[in-house]
Structures are given as C-alpha cells and as structure tokens.
Amino acid sequence: MEIDNRSLKTKKLTTSSIVIALYVVIMFLTQSFSFGAVQIRIATTLYALAYLCPFLVLPLGLSNVISNILLGGLGIFDILGGGLVGVITSILICLIRKFKLNICFVAIPIILIPGILVPIWLSQILIVPYKVLAISLCLGQVVPAILGVILIKIFKGKIGE
C-alpha cells in the first residue's frame, strides 16, 4: 500500500511538473499575442486538463503565475490575478466533470473566467475600457476553449484518475 501511495504521489508530482513546464513553454512561444489588450493565450487550453486530472487545479494556477512573472511584466495584480483566474477556471472545469455535464461545457469557463476577470485589473493597467477588454479577451479565448475540449476528447480514458 505504501509503495502504491508513493507511486501515485510521484505520478501526480511528475504530471504537475510537466503541465507547468508545458504552460510556460507555450506562453514563451506565443508571447507575442498572449499579453496586452488583445490576448490569445493558447496555453490556457491546458486548463482543460483539470477535467482529467483534478489535482492539476493548483499547478495550473501556479503555471499562470510563473508565466506572468517571467513574461508578463504587468505587475503584481496581473501575476496574482492570473494565478487566481487559473485556479477558478480549473475548479469550474472539475465541477463540470463532477456533475457529469457535457464535455463541451468546458469551453465556457475557459472563455468567460479569463475574459471577464482579467479585464478588471488589466483595464486599469492598460487604461483601456473594461468592456472593450472583456469582449476582446473573451473572443481571444475561443480558440483555447475549443482546443481544450478537443484535448479532453483525445486524452479521455488515456490519462487521469
């Protein structure tokens, strides 16, 4: 029993580390269109993995914090707010699985949580109206949301608890 528990912890830690690294690398490679008033954050596709691996909720939030520290440059509100957005989005995705809703519902938090929450502080930092940013960010999250649903469909039954 002890070996199985240790093995499970190792598997979760390894998976979490790989997801964090993937998130940061994807953000690095897509940083030209991942920051600023118009954001298409392909890395947020990875939030969908919380559907398959609920233990990824905190690592996904941490991924956002790390990428904002390394690449964002928009200050503490963006760093901490981004982490909170990652955690909230991932929790909602876990709840979609828990309540056995259609996988397509995963797209909703991937679009709406970053799209509605991030403009709260970003509008102040960039001096751009909230509504303009919210619309822009929601539109920018459509592609990651669709990719997130596809990611779940590809890996469902192959990874996860």
Structure description:
The structure is a single chain. The chain is mainly alpha-helical and 161 residues long. 72% of the residues lie in helices and 0% in strands. It has seven helices and no strands. It has helices at 2-29, 49-52, 57-72, 76-98, 107-126, 130-140, 142-155. α3 (57-72) packs antiparallel against α4 (76-98), α4 (76-98) packs antiparallel against α5 (107-126) and α5 runs antiparallel to α6 (130-140). The mean pLDDT is 93.
Indicate the percent of residues in helices. Answer: over 70%
Overall residue-averaged pLDDT value: 93
Form type: globular
Quickly give the structural class. mainly alpha
Helices and strands in order:
Layout: H1 2-29, H2 49-52, H3 57-72, H4 76-98, H5 107-126, H6 130-140, H7 142-155
Helix pairs in contact: 1-3, 3-4, 4-5, 5-6, 5-7
List key phrases describing it.
single chain; 161 residues; mainly alpha; 7 helices; 72% helix; globular
